[in-house]
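Chapter summary example.
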Amino acid sequence: MRLILVFALMLSVFSGERNVIDGSIDQMRFLGATPTSKSPRAFASALYKVDKNAKTLVNMQQLTNDQEGVEFVRVTERVAVVGTPHTFSTHAIIADLRGGNKTEIVELPSDRGFITANVLSRSEDGSFIDLLQYSLASKAGILRTSLVGVNIRPDSKGKRLLLDTSWSAMQEALIPGDIVGFFSEWDGIYGVDTPEGITYSPGVTNVRLTPPLTGRIATQARRYVSILCANPSYLVIAPELTPGEFAKRTDTSLEICDRKAASWKPPIRIVGNAPRVRLFGEWLAITEFETRDADQTAPSTATSKHFVDQFYASASPSLDGHGHVLLVNLFDGRRIDFTTGDRDSEILGIRGDRVCYRTYEKLWLGPLGPDIFIAKRLIADDDAAWQIHWMFW
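The structure predicted for these 393 residues follows.
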């Protein structure tokens, strides 16, 4: 009798946990998009949800077609901004998922030139975003750089506010991190390591982004750095290397700034010179990659029904990876690492004690812990999943 009661209790706990997981899957929304600002080829983009019974993706709304394509994607917790067309974006498609599944198209006036991917900042309530924009300031052909503010919430007449924003907004810039990168521009922005701190200099303005790094990177009076990703709490940078320096590196040192404490944490050293780096709250997700000579034979990887491997092989420089993922909690120092064995692997989202990640055209959900890979659950196996690089939970 006692054995039956124990079994019933275990079954009840298992059923309850499964219901929680199923409910979580119902709330997930995914953005499929492949930025190709440096390629003549364009890909369609769309919002998806998961049919958890069929383990397939359901197209909820098409954002761009395969003629328009995507130049960049910027995301906050529940808002996605997609720049289109895929070269010299003039439109920003805003998918606002805070109050349902809605998308709005914001067309910049023709005299405002084109927008680019390099920055997105926002107000505290997430209702206002800033996009970096280039335009011709005069008939002389001078290129003007500015921040364009977009009000996510339309006014009473349904119109959105477009106005120039102060460069000081860069101090709260949000940068999601390097996600695709094969045929698109670098997702981060460039700063300078100075005695006063890391600064960003759009033209004649100097915006101080961090406190001084006390010489951990700078080897000369002014040294450029790549700001890889940033959220309201943390900002992650790495040295900006010359092509010669980059080719010789076999590892990468990441410097972490605690934006709220205005201080620097100990650096994180990882294998490979071309990692994908993303921030999810307190968690820093790193997928290790390294460059290889273009004439080398591509390593054996898991079979894919798509040409994702060709993306890596044709990238310049060519990229190689084995699906080694490292998760670091920047608040308490916890580290979780696992290897998928698939070169095309990336963390899509972290919420509570769950992690959602992708390998080729498969989406997985696992516990946030040492058994993340062992106890994973397949939630979707779909041809469209190779384009999934962002999720909303």
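To summarize the output: The longest strand covers residues 56-64.
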